[in-house]
Amino acid sequence: MTMLSTPGAGDAPLLDIRGLTVSFAADGGGEGIAVNDVSLELQRGRILGLVGESGSGKSVTGLSIMGLIEKPGRIAQGQILFNGIDLARLSDAQMKSYRGKRIAMIFQDPMMTLNPVLRIGTQMVEAVLAHDKVPLAEARARATEALGQVGIPHPEERLDSYPHEFSGGMRQRVSIAIALLHRPDLIIADEPTTALDVTIQAQILSEVQQLTERFGTALIWVTHDLSIVCGLADEIAVMYGGRIVEYGPVADVIRHPRHRYTNGLLHSVPSSNRRGARLFQIPGTAPSIFDMPEGCAFRPRCTAADEACRQVPHMVDEGCRQHSCFHPVAAEDMR
Amino acid sequence: MTAWLVHRIMQSLLVVIAMTAIVFVAVNVIGDPVAILISPDANQAERDRIIVQFGLDQPLWRQYLSFVGGAVRGDFGNSFVYGMPALQVIFQRMPATLELALGTLVVSVAFGIPLGLYTGMQPNSFLSKLTLSASILGFSVPVFWLGLILIMFFSVYLGWFPAGGRGETVRVFGVGLSFLTLDGLRHLTLPVLTLAIFKISLVLRMVRAGVRDVVPQEYVKFARAKGLSKQRILFVHILKNIMIPVVTIVGLEFGSLIAFSVVTESIFAWPGMGKLIIDSINVLDRPMIVAYLMIIVFLFVAINLVVDILYTLLDPRARLTGP
Amino acid sequence: MTSQTELSATATKAPPVASRSPARRLVREFFSSRSATLGIFLLACLIVLALVGPLLVPQDPYDLMQLDLLDGQLPPGAQSAAGGYTYWAGTDDQGRDMLSAIIYGLRTSLAVGVGSALIAASLGTAIGIFAAYRGGRAEALIMRLIDLQLSFPTILVALMILAVLGRGVANVVLALVIVEWATYARVARGVAMVERRKEYIEAAECLAIPRRRILFNHLLPNCLPPLVVIATVQAGRAISLEATLSFLGLGVPITEPSLGLLIANGYQYLLSGQYWISFYPGLMLLVIIVAINLVGDQLRDIINVRRQK
Predict the structure, then answer these.
(1) How many CA atoms within 13 Å lie on the side-chain side of C268?
(2) Kindly report the CA angle at C116 between B32 and C123, in degrees rounded to 5?
């Protein structure tokens, strides 16, 4: 079980996931493994991009950190060390004191994240009061300030609005404001811009970047969209079939991908094709967690697969990079 | 908001007016009241006198207009049976029916909501499954048969509660209320229980379905991610979302409670409006039937209006567009 | 780089068996609940009883020649004086075997309840889909009518209709249909409105398929699932409503009693301890409605889950 670490960080990492395995019980009995022996590290103030398609286990990883995995899912193995404390072993009551305060989460669809029948102010104030017993007026003041920081005009008045009175981008800003209320050490953002317009996406991205820099917050940005991660993250981890298949500094991985899947992903981005040429697609679809292929999960879709791939590939260390592939892309193989 | 309110009230008035026409026509087709009012051996002069007295010789549209004119003034004519203004008779009996309906409503909500919340949040506990099975029974049992069974068991067999009738009343603002006396409560128990078992099952199932709907929603997960306590999540976030359909249904069921009092009052000999209408239909006491129907129409339209207003108050998303 | 042929040679184990036909899947999902299985089983028993019951019972309770007044008001389990059979559910005041009466009553209750539900369903669905497809003033008018109908308590409307028409099986069915159609129409219209906007309808229209075909072959099948759920609930309510009306004396005539009427007959004997005359018919009624609700519940759960996927 290898550990992924970032260069130049002498002190202990903020987040250290070791061998996390999360399984889901199937309807008819049996189990599917959504997150399989995942290990990663995150230093303070760094940004990690967690990339993969639906079903790769990236969201489940994020939810596990928050302790939000519910039946029929469970954390089967592993440790989630946050400042040395194993979150996976904490009771729900103990976890509650972390949620929203030390670790915060932003979800994908802001319309469904905010309770439609409660005012924004109510939902922000309760987040403040959940961890700090302060008078109502002070809670409201903090909420107003937070709204202002994410760029919402007239924050004082907007506290009394309902979620449906905001646009999608504004709602997501509210979610971000809520996440920042207690200046958490870590924010997990689960596809926060997927449901938004491309132009709004860009705005939100840049604002999140500024805010996390300003407050020194570490960020895990979960997404299926490589292009987002390029400009934002320091490191990138690619997940497939519940495992991390490639990891490294963003520039390195993008320019010289090792794992075949990463390579496929990069080539699927439309801009990487010549005009008029057929759009590239990785053939096939991602496997269901209840029906994983033997050995390397990517084997059925990989052009370089052979008999050796019936074993699960181990992690290969290459300095600050890692990948798990028996037939990694060599530099001259890049199409 | 006010524009919508005015529009809704206008709509309600139109419905009431439409119903007056329908009710009037329907009732006038029922049987021949002349035969009832006049004893068989009355002579023609007597017949003619009564016909004129009750305005039965006028053309239908004239009768309708005078009917509407009277209705607006609250005058539906005198009951053929009681000889008093029909409306007055109804008002005399209304408190008893309302007592039954409100009592049932309170009991159903007081038991149904907590039970529904529990079965929704802890679906796998033994108590939950038991409650759910019981609710299917409660939901399916025909009300009138349940009443009979309750009488049989609690009254005839155990002798704990009286088999019928209303208990002692206490006058409050000129209205006799029986739930304020112990004897009144004893008499109230079985009828309310009969009606409430169905309602509790209904409310329970609705709340449970609501909880099952709401709990997987993203905003509940987000509330947990903020570190909120379980109580707050349940009672503020979840409950408020469930309330919307629950209030709507409970409001509408209140109307049907008053309608179904027809059955319960027959079984328990409860002196309310319901028993009155059955008796009136059987003897074709037209003014009474008409007055009763108009009261019911008015009540229902009013309830629908109140429920609509409550709905917009509870669900802020509805306020923009209005129904 | 391995070639394409190598790839196919190293193909993984075959993809999961293509899911069985939709019908079998539905059956499997349905029977995964024990209560639903119980419900279907009960319903099947009831239907069988209703169909062949009269052949099994010792007595035709409405043939006055077979009744013996001396056998009147016997408790359950008593022996008949002459015929040599046991009155398993006792007898009523006329000496009727309650068990036979219940089976005959079951037939009437089921026939009226289910029959009216089917007619109301067909009528209501047709009207609702028509309204959704037509749109405009026709739709608005129909919706107003539905609103009007639904704002009033079913029992009162039925009472009024029966007061006008008098007793009789056909009248009861008519009253029930008038009371029930609006629920189906409202749901059908709502579902049809959503489905109508979907692309497969647009595609069918582009292919110039005649409107009737679109409605029947394309729109209707997709609207059916929620309507089926509503139909089961409504069938239960129809049966209950008929029983209530008959109990009040405004429903089926004495010559063709339903379970409700049987209960009414036994009401007066209740206070003197002869409970069986009302109790057993009511128990049968309860079983019918519970069975229908169990089935309806499970159908609704299945359909809701499917819609969310």
Answers:
(1) 5
(2) 100
Return the SS3 of A233: coil
* Predicted local confidence at residue C16, as pLDDT: 41
pLDDT in tens, A190-219: 888 887 888 888 888 888 888 888 888 899
pLDDT tens for each residue of A119-156: 899 899 998 988 888 999 999 999 999 898 888 888 88
Q: Please give the distance of CA B193 from its chain centroid, rounded to a whole number.
A: 15
CB proximity B281 to C under 8 Å: yes
Mean pLDDT of all residues in C6-10: 35
Average pLDDT over residues A32-54: 88
Task: Compute the mean pLDDT over every residue in chain B, rounded to the nearest whole number.
Answer: 80
C149 and B CB contact within 8 Å = no
Judged on CB neighbours under 10 Å (0-12, 13-18, 19+), C217 is: exposed
- Count helices and strands (H / E) in chain A: 11, 12
- In chain B, residues with a C-beta closer than 8 Å to the C-beta of A64 are none
**How confident is the model over C223-227, as a mean pLDDT?**
80
CA dist B6 and A130 (Å) reads 43
Mutation target for C interface from B27, B29, B144: give the one with most C CBs within 10 A.
B144
- A105 Cβ contact list (under 8 Å, min separation 6): A62, A66, A68, A99, A179, A187, A188, A189, A190, B222, B225
pTM of this prediction?
0.78
- Residue among A194, A201, A190, A262 at smallest CA distance from A225: A194
A306 alpha carbon, distance to own chain's centre = 31
Euclidean distance between CA atoms A201 and A88, whole angstroms:
33
The residue among C255, C270, C282, C284 whose CA lies nearest residue C61 is: C255
CA distances from B288 to B56, C66, C166 (A): 16, 44, 19
> What ipTM did this prediction achieve?
0.78
For Cα atoms B272, B275, B279, give the angle at the middle one, nearest 5 degrees.
Answer: 140
Bridge partners, A18 (sequence order) = A79
* Chains contacting B (3 or more CB pairs within 8 Å): A, C
Chains that touch A (3 or more CB pairs under 8 A): B, C
Strands (E), chain B: 170-172, 175-177
Q: Which of B71, B35, B27 is nearest to B51 (CA)?
A: B35
> CA geometry: angle at C43 spanning C42 and C46, to 5°?
85
Cα–Cα dist A147/A207, whole Å: 13
Is A164 an interface residue toward B (CB < 8 Å)? yes
What are the angstrom distances between the C-alpha of B35 and each of A94, B78, C129?
Answer: 82, 17, 47
B49 and chain A in contact, CB less than 8 A? no
B143 and chain A in contact, CB less than 8 A: no
Looking at every residue in chain A, the average pLDDT score rounds to: 83
Q: Report cis status (omega within 30 of 0) of the bond before C225.
A: no
First to last CA, chain C: 40
Do B241 and A117 make contact, defined as CB atoms within 8 angstroms? yes
Chain C residue with the nearest C-alpha to that of B301:
C151
Complete domains list, chain A, with CATH: 15-102+182-323 (3.40.50.300)
